[in-house]
Amino acid sequence: xxxxxxxxxxxxxxHLFLAIVTAVLYQALGATSVAVxxxxxxxxxxxxxxxxxxxxxxxxxxxxxxxxxxxVRFCKDVESRSQSGxxxxxxxxxxxxxxxxxxxxDFVQEFYNGDLLNCEQSYDKMGRTAQVNIMCGGCPNGQCxxxxxxxxxxxxxxxxxxxxxxxxxxxxxGSRVFEGFTVGFNPRSWEVVYNGMTQLGFEKAHKEFxxxxxxTSVALYMTAIxxxxxxxxxxxxxxxxxxxxxxxxxxxxxxxxxxxxxxxxLLIVDWRCEKARDTPYExxxxxxxxxxxxxxxxxxxxCDNKQNxxxxxxxxxxxxxxxSCVFIVVSTLFCCGWFVYKTRVENQxxxxxxxxMTLLSACLETVSGGGQSYAQPDDPNSPFVNQGxxxxxxxxxxxxxxxxxxxRNYGSI
Length: 413
Known about the structure:
By secondary structure, the chain is of the alpha+beta class. It has helices at residues 2-29, 310-345, 357-367, 387-390, 394-410; strands at residues 42-44, 50-52, 60-63, 69-73, 77-82, 85-91, 98-100, 107-111, 129-136, 150-158, 161-168, 182-185, 191-194, 197-198, 217-223, 236-240, 245-250, 265-273, 277-287, 295-303.
């Protein structure tokens, strides 16, 4: 049994050593951005540097006890093993319960949803739970000698919860992550970058994540913690291959405006296919951040056919709009002219029927002194006095009065 266990440990050590060498080479080559690991077994320390423990998943650390042995399977579960069977003290959930510690504790792992037997009334009804405090290096008492670490101490707070101190040689410190920074599609539907790390599917070009030929632009929003938003710089892009796809950036995010949670900035990627291609084009967008690793993500664009200029595509609609406006104006003028003709001109003849003749006649009459007017016959029923009856010369008025007086004196009996 012990021989089988030793062979298992040897195999695990070889795989772990290979993973560590690969990680070191990757760091030596220099990563330009931080992509989220493929597993949830990673952690950010108090200085925002990432530690990826994906290669450690399931590696067992065992502490022999008098009545039972405690086994911690890294990023998997915590078990108490005895002759009567196994007791599960929790499993590493899909949610990230891997956080930075304090003091001499570097990292903390939480395990929940263990066995419920006699723990039905435990915290939040999660059954048995465990907390693993991880220290980078060795145990304080020098208990660990070689290997990949060991369990330093085990404390049972109750029959339903256990505290474990684990010492391991931590992975090499990774890149510094700009926490709180998010890039997503607008309107908000899918994150391209979350918490400063590029999400799976956008760390490189994937055909299943590519945009179709018909989509000529993509709108992205960017947010960051307000106190760190001034560290964000103007984004740049690179196209792979360089020719065949015309790309431009616009929007408030393209000018380097600080994005915040309450006032996100908008980054619009306009692209047009100049050459058809079977595989997608890659547009690598880089957002520099002062004192942090740059944010970098890749957008893929399919080009099944060549696309015309944006101006050419909209020129026909512009011409149609201009013609429509001209038609509306001409129609309005025609209707107004027809209305004026029917109401003012149709029943007139000669020069009076000419457009504007009535207005011209009124103007000429005003300029020529216009007081001369034809007297209308007196209408006894009219409330107005005939102007010709009282506009007479003074001499004629006097003669008329004298004649009337004489006729009255001599013509009456």
